[in-house]
Amino acid sequence: MSLDQSINLQSLNMVRDELVATVDSSAKHLEEYVRGDCKQANALTEAVKATQQIIGTFTLLELNSAGMLAEELSSVLQSLETEHQGKRFDSILEVTTNTFFILPRYLEYLNQVQQQVPGLLIPHINALRKLQREQALTESHFLPISVPQGLQAPPPKKVVATSEGLVSQVRRARQMYQLGLLALIKEKQVKQGVSLMRKGLARVWNLSGEQNLSTLWWLADVALEALIDADMSPLETRKFIFMYVDKVFRQVELQGEESFQSPAPKVIVKELLYLITLSGHKSEACEAVHQACPELKLPYTERELQKEYAVLYGPSSHTINTLAQVLHAELTSAKRTLEGGSQNALAIVNDLDSFVSILNKIGETLSIIGLNSASQTLKTQLDVVKGWSDNSDSIDEAELDEVANCLLYIESLVANLQHANVHGDHSSDVTTRDQQVISHELSSALAIVREECLSGLSLTKRALNSFSSSGYDTGHIINIAKTLDAIRGAMQILGLEKASSLLQRSSVFVDEVLLLDEPPAAIDEVLETFADAIISIEYYFDSTASLDSLDDKVLNIAEESLNALGYGL
């Protein structure tokens, strides 16, 4: 199952500032409406109009979860026409204010991670839906999860009971389940409560044998196991799932044995499968579920989702960039001092207090932004550095190398912070540190290659424009083929075969058509078609900051344009 949640970063960047301005405008109009004792109806109307623009933009960008959040916000704002005071009015203001805060933060988050994680907005969507007394969305609402045909629980331990005995046993099992459910809902003694719920489920599962409803009891039991063992948060949406299971308990209690033949509710089965998969828990029971549903995969686990929440609600990119700039300046100063010490031990010993102070500042800043492992690694090296005061004649070269490697590792983390590639804490073992430094160096090299390619394509466009406006003077395009060949070589090294092949055909077209002494017939149309190919290739590179996220579908325009010119692949 594909769970592609990628975004068109270039399209988002084109409208992002305007979109944020529209969100701010709507918030200001709402503030004006409230400040005027809800008598300025025009201010509320303008606030609603702004949210309608936001909805339209999110729809065009195919940001479904953000679009739904904006729709719910618009609906709640419209309800303010009849709500002027009281607890509900205060609740509406609290939730809408929070929504106005989270919308621009989510846009910033998308720019950081370059993919959608729609589940992050579900709590905010549900908070707005609750105000409208609408049913809450499930956690898997935006994910294409399907229940496999014929999903069946493994056979339980067989229990024989009479019709009368069965109902009483179901009643006792349900009471046990409800007692545990109450603890889960109140979030008091959750572990003990879940244990009771699982005992109740085990009993009713045994009673249902291998009938249809046994699938529900099985999955609910595995989901509760994962909830505790994987330390999953008891979110409201998750509580509702297990409350719904209690409703099925009631149905069995009222209708008796024949209700076991009813199919397990697909909506609940889907959510239970989602929870089990999201947990990332490895156990015999979870493995049995995964074997029964081999196609079920998620792009993240509960732990990773919590990290994404931390990024969404954490410091803004402006704050992170400011701290990263401070760190970069301190690291530059520290490296310069260390370099001097490698040539003359006395130089670093004489300036040791200053060097230690710089390293202390770097460590404290790393802790502030959540890079605790890196901070701890640096503190370990600080103890080594402080010992240099007793060695004014020479410093152990191995120690110098170790401190230098530590600074390089931190420098790579800081560089990634500025490009939003680091979220939260990271392991600081030697292997991970080396991989981080190598990854940083490789990313820097790839970024340079990308910029050079974009620069060459921009130069090509300007040359074609000059060629056209000069009456087709070939002097303006004499170097185009060489430029395109240089870009093609870079793309070939990067493994971008399709783009490389298209540039090769483009280069041949320039040599065989545009550089002829006499321009071809319908030269303006030919140039326009060729320009479409170059623009498509440029957009291909400019659509994302990461080479890993390049989409070959973007090159379809270039391919069609070259086909039209007779120089297709």
What is the makeup of the main sheet? none
Q: What low-confidence regions span 5 or more consecutive residues with pLDDT below 50?
A: 420-430
* Proportion of strand residues: under 5%
Separation, N- and C-terminal Cα atoms:
31 Å
Shape: globular
- Compute the average pLDDT: 82
Number of strands: 0
| SSE pattern, N- to C-terminal | HHHHHHHHHHHHHHHHHHHHHH
Q: State the assembly state of the protein chains.
A: single chain
Contiguous helical run count: 22
Secondary structure class reads mainly alpha
- Helical content (DSSP H or I, runs of 4+): over 70%
Gyration radius, in Å: 31 Å
Explain what you see:
The protein has 569 residues and is mostly helical. It has 22 helices and no strands. It has helices at residues 9-35, 41-61, 64-79, 87-113, 122-131, 163-186, 190-208, 214-229, 236-255, 266-279, 284-292, 302-313, 317-343, 345-350, 352-368, 372-386, 397-418, 430-469, 480-493, 497-514, 523-542, 556-564. Helix 3 packs parallel to helix 5. The chain is globular, with a radius of gyration of 31 Å. The model is unreliable at 420-430 (pLDDT under 50).
List the main descriptive attributes of the protein structure presented here.
single chain, 569 residues, mainly alpha, 22 helices, globular
Summarize the topology.
Elements: H1 9-35, H2 41-61, H3 64-79, H4 87-113, H5 122-131, H6 163-186, H7 190-208, H8 214-229, H9 236-255, H10 266-279, H11 284-292, H12 302-313, H13 317-343, H14 345-350, H15 352-368, H16 372-386, H17 397-418, H18 430-469, H19 480-493, H20 497-514, H21 523-542, H22 556-564
